[in-house]
C-alpha cells in the first residue's frame, strides 16, 4: 500500500537528535528503538550501505541502511525508493565517525510515493514565478522559505499575546458585506443567490469594529484577511492580512504608544 491511512511516529527528527545526545551523556550502552517519519531528501549509496537524509517538519537526520540486514520485502522496496518519497523507519540511533547523528534502519514502510522529481538539490527552486505559484515546491526546496512561514506565525502569536494582555478583545467581523466601506479601495464583488443580492469582500474591518466600541466594548481588535481589487506587485497584494484595533477613551498619543511598545 503506497498510501497508507496514517502512521504514529515515536519521535520527530529534532527529538531524535536530542535523544541521542542524552544517551551519550548518560553513557547508555544500548540505544532504544525509535520510529521516525519524513521525506527522503538525499540518497548516497556506498556498496552494501546507503545513507539517506530524512526530513520532517522539525529538521533532518541521516539514515543508514545496511542492505544485507534488510528483509527480502524491505530490500525489494528499497530498490524502488526515490528522492521525495515519504517513509516510516524503525531503528536505533548512533553517531558516525564524522559526528553525524544517524539512525540505523531495521525496517521501513512506504507512506507516500513521490510521482514527480523534486527541484534540483543544490540550487533549489530559483524560478521566482514558480516559487510564488507553487508554494509547496518552494517549501520543499528552500529552507529559508519555511523559516519565513515559521517567523510569520510567531509574529502573529506575539501580536495577539501583546494585545490580549492589555485587555483588547479579539473579534471576527463579516467578510461578506452589503456595502464596501472603511477605506478608499476598489472591492471584489460577488452575488448571494439565496438573497439575490450583491455583496462585497471587505476592504477594511473598520466600520464593524467601531460598532463594537459603540456597543460597549472598550478595546477590540481583528487580525484578518482583507481584499482589495487593485494592482499586484511585490509590495501590494489583492488579498492580505491586516491588524486593526480600536480603544475607547484613547487618543492618537495612546495609539502611538501602544504600537511603539508592540514593535519594540
TrEMBL record:
GO molecular function, one term: ATP binding
Keyword Cytoplasm (UniProt): no
Signal peptide: none
Alphabetic keyword roster: Aminoacyl-tRNA synthetase, ATP-binding, Ligase, Nucleotide-binding
Protein name in UniProt: Aminoacyl-transfer RNA synthetases class-II family profile domain-containing protein
Residue span(s) of domain Aminoacyl-transfer RNA synthetases class-II family profile: 149-264
Gene3D superfamilies: Bira Bifunctional Protein, Domain 2, Nucleic acid-binding proteins
GO CC term (a single one): cytosol
The UniProt record lists the keyword Nucleotide-binding: yes
GO biological process terms, semicolon-separated: lysyl-tRNA aminoacylation
Family annotation (InterPro entries): Aa-tRNA-synt_II, aa-tRNA-synth_II, aa-tRNA-synth_II/BPL/LPL, Lys-tRNA-ligase_II_N, Lys-tRNA-synth_II_C, NA-bd_OB-fold, NA-bd_OB_tRNA
Pfam families documented for this protein: tRNA-synt_2 (PF00152), tRNA_anti-codon (PF01336)
Amino acid at each position: 500500500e503506497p498510501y497508507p491511512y496514517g502512521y504514529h511516529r515515536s519521535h520527530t527528527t529534532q527529538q531524535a537528535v536530542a535523544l541521542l545526545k542524552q544517551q551519550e551523556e548518560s553513557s547508555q550502552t544500548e540505544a532504544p528503538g525509535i520510529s521516525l517519519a519524513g521525506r527522503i531528501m538525499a540518497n548516497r549509496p556506498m556498496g552494501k550501505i546507503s545513507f539517506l537524509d530524512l526530513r520532517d517538519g522539525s529538521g533532518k537526520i541521516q539514515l543508514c541502511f545496511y542492505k544485507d540486514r534488510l528483509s527480502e520485502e524491505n530490500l525489494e522496496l528499497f530498490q524502488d525508493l526515490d528522492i521525495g518519497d515519504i517513509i516510516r523507519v524503525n531503528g536505533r540511533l548512533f553517531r558516525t565517525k564524522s559526528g553525524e547523528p544517524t539512525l540505523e534502519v531495521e525496517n521501513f514502510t512506504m507512506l507516500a510515493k513521490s510521482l514527480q522529481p523534486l527541484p534540483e538539490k543544490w540550487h533549489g527552486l530559483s524560478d521566482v514565478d514558480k516559487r510564488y505559484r507553487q508554494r509547496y515546491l518552494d517549501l520543499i526546496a528552500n529552507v529559508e522559505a519555511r523559516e519565513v512561514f515559521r517567523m510569520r506565525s510567531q509574529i502573529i502569536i506575539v501580536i495577539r499575546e501583546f494585545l490580549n494582555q492589555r485587555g483588547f478583545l479579539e473579534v471576527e467581523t463579516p467578510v461578506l458585506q452589503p456595502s464596501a466601506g472603511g477605506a478608499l479601495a476598489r472591492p471584489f464583488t460577488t452575488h448571494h443567490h439565496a438573497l439575490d443580492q450583491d455583496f462585497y469582500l471587505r476592504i477594511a474591518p473598520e466600520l464593524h469594529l467601531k460598532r463594537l466600541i459603540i456597543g460597549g466594548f472598550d478595546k477590540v481588535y481583528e487580525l484578518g484577511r482583507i481584499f482589495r481589487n487593485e494592482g499586484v506587485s511585490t509590495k501590494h497584494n489583492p488579498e492580505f492580512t491586516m491588524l486593526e484595533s480600536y480603544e475607547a477613551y484613547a487618543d492618537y498619543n495612546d495609539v502611538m504608544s501602544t504600537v511603539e511598545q508592540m514593535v519594540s
